[in-house]
């Protein structure tokens, strides 16, 4: 580790913190129906869209109607994307003449982008037409991100309102989120990326002659527009197979920094939105502090492990850390930082190959995802996942002191706790269940490039990434088979929607409750003590069930590597 590396990490953290209050305040005003600075331009567009869809901005929905609207919208998007991918050979903007996707891959990809996972069992430049990239995938990058954000807003309203029956309107929230938040930010970031050298065109691929005299095909296309929203919406799906390690997606150290900041910007800002909407910004800062503690711990472990390097190589007198699978233009610090940020934020974009990390370096992304990706988390999903842990932390604290637990004046009772546990137990059920099945099936093990604990980590990482709706890959696993396309697709659906519905059930129960004034026995939920309690609950409740699996994978590989054995 170097001072320069830590300085770069500090600059990233500082930029994210600078954006928290401006973005948080903007989103709080936007979703409260107040006027924002883009209202003069986009307000008329919003009203036209509402009239065309027959939506009233004043009509709200209860939690069941909100959930059904969300499910119907996402089902329609999934089906449309499936048809686009299957029929891309008959659709326009297919300059390379690429065929339609087979049924299992089309299903996996449609589910992946619908659930904000963006798992890719294909090479983008050799599989997807420009039409599929724009209409099928980039559109989903907006809608899936907006879905997560508005669900978080609905959960916030459960705490900010009292004795109410509604959580807002899914259709109104979705429109405002896309039109006033995601679209303007994506346009600005895309223009900056074009300035940095990211292509944005509809030209055919270029054929060039290399210095060795061989022919090379250089892919291009509408890249900047997809990269911008893939980062801002914590989607992560790359236009190219190499994702953010590709020089056309991420050409410079500056573009790398801006993309990492974009990953965290909205998720971190939502904590401030929460504080503002519940009329106590300290609550938002407490949640962000808990996220920050776990994030910095992960960065320190990953950076330290990668900077220490492979002991078998350092024993030969070769120092400089583990550069395998990393881009020289980013280096070890920015590779470890990117890996920690992208897996803590449900993004899935990668600028280095996680399978090439040291065992402890690869352990950090796994734990980040297995905790539910609440370390800032996916846009919206990270906040509502964290609030579910807050409900559990308050409940546990209340049981410890023998009084009814409360959070922001709302009593936390058995119904909310049962639903919160149900939502949080969905992840280990999907991740570990499918991992166990794949680990014993010969047709699944045949897709592995490595044996032993590293091969097990490849399987565990795939289902962890799918269940956490992250989408990053450990590499070394041929996931483009009917078995993996089907089971990973099911894991994505379970990880997304079987967590959302119980979460909205918790919101529906809380919004109807009265708000009680704080008393002498109330637990302060904005103090360092509560932050520590929350982190402890996350690590114990969220992470303990994964320890046996982690022991079989990266932990045992770490000790084997120290003993001179590789896989």
Explain what the structure shows.
The protein is an all-alpha fold and about 575 residues long. It is globular and about 75 Å long. It is built from 20 helices and four strands.
Shape: globular
| End-to-end C-alpha gap | 26 Å
How would a textbook summarize the main sheet? 2 strands, antiparallel
Instruction: Order the strands across the largest sheet as they lie in space.
Output: 1-2
| Poorly predicted ranges | none
State Rg.
23 Å
Along the chain, the helix and strand elements come as HHHHHHHEEHHHHHHHEEHHHHHH
Question: In which range does the helix fraction lie?
Answer: 55-70%
Kindly report the average pLDDT value: 92
Furnish the topology, listing elements before pairings.
Elements: H1 3-31, H2 39-53, H3 63-86, H4 103-114, H5 124-127, H6 130-160, H7 170-196, E1 206-209, E2 215-218, H8 223-232, H9 253-277, H10 281-308, H11 311-314, H12 331-344, H13 359-370, H14 381-401, E3 406-407, E4 410-411, H15 414-440, H16 442-445, H17 452-467, H18 482-511, H19 528-543, H20 547-562
Helix pairs in contact: 1-9, 1-12, 2-7, 3-4, 3-6, 3-18, 4-18, 6-7, 6-8, 6-14, 6-18, 7-8, 8-9, 9-10, 9-12, 10-12, 10-13, 10-19, 12-13, 13-17, 13-20, 14-15, 14-19, 15-17, 15-18, 17-18, 17-20
In short:
With 567 residues, the chain is mostly helical. Helices cover 64% and strands 2% of the residues.
